[in-house]
Amino acid sequence: MSTSFLFQDEEFLGWWPFLREFILALGSEIMEEIHCVEQFFIKIKSLYAFVSQVCFFVLVDLLLEENENFDNEKGDKSVVMALTSVLFYSVFGYFVSRIKDVFHRQRFQLFRSFLTIEHLVTWIFKVILEWVKAIVIVLCLREQGLNYQPSLLYSILTFLYYLCSEKIFVETLPDLFEMLSIEKFENLEHLYVPMAMNFFTVLAGTVVSTYFLLVQYSNFVLLSVYFLVYIRLKDIYYNYWKLLIVEREIFRSFRIATKEEIDSWNDICAVCLTAMSRARITPCNHLFHSHCLKRCLKSSLLCPLCKTHFLDGNSEIKL
């Protein structure tokens, strides 16, 4: 009998390395598929933002009402409150998107084209219509005994979260910072600003969900942690942080000029023809704005001034 068991054990040990490799490979494939699904979900910006907003709004409402039970009538009212809040805020988001569209297409030149006036009137009526729809929904909810009366703190917290998570604001705010021409950003506002906004949403989601994890475990809290923290951290890492590292890698061979070097240069940037308070130095000792240098590197590895090839004697530049 002992010999039989020994044979079985030896046979199992012989198959174990192959079985282990199969399990690891299968697990890796499953995780890769899950990662692809999560990235696809993140790319659907509107749905991604909506799910996280509803989760956060519900938790905030329950937190402010000091009600940790997700299975009672209050939980249902919190969901209704969250959906109604998203509806009202989306009207503001729609208004901002139309304003952005007007300036982007230069529709502010109203007196030059009748078509632009027609477009302007159209989107104004659309904004009014969206507000009317939101008000009608609130009135219908009141008929059902569900009054939409958010507190001031609830409105502030949820609106800030909405601003930092909604697609239109994540896309618009970097443009506003870019208009300020803050040289310290080195023309990377499209990465720094959304990443900071996402960090705020992660921090807010972590604080609220941690409170409920400590007070009462529930499936909804775990789901909220997944969307408010885990998915958003993946969004930050894969869609902003890694790209930021690549962008910074481009400038690794071009150190930042000191104030004394900029003063001794005593000249404008040869690319944009404006003065420099912050600049990068090329291997051939020429100074340029970081964003100007990056724009030049995308088209050529030659110095814009002396046409020296940047890879000569330096093979570490990666585009």
Keywords:
319 residues, mainly alpha, Herpes Virus-1, 2 domains, two-stranded antiparallel ribbon, 10 helices, 2 strands, 71% helix, 1% strand, globular, disordered N terminus
In short:
Pfam families: zf-RING_2. The protein is an all-alpha fold. Helix content is 71%, strand content 1%.
Describe the overall structure:
The chain is mostly helical and 319 residues long. The protein has 2 domains: 202 residues, no CATH class; 65 residues, Zinc/RING finger domain, C3HC4 (zinc finger) (Herpes Virus-1). The chain is 71% helix and 1% strand. The chain contains 10 helices and 2 strands. A two-stranded antiparallel sheet has the order 1-2. A hairpin with a 5-residue loop joins strand 1 and strand 2. It is globular. The relative contact order is 0.08. It comes from Phyllotreta striolata. This is RING-type domain-containing protein.
Note the topology.
Blueprint: H1 2-43, H2 45-64, H3 73-104, H4 114-143, H5 152-165, H6 167-180, H7 189-215, H8 219-250, H9 259-265, E1 280-281, E2 287-288, H10 290-299
Helix pairs in contact: 2-3, 2-5, 2-7, 2-8, 3-4, 6-7, 7-8
β-strand number: 2
Our count of domains comes out at 2
| Backbone structural class | mainly alpha
Shape: globular
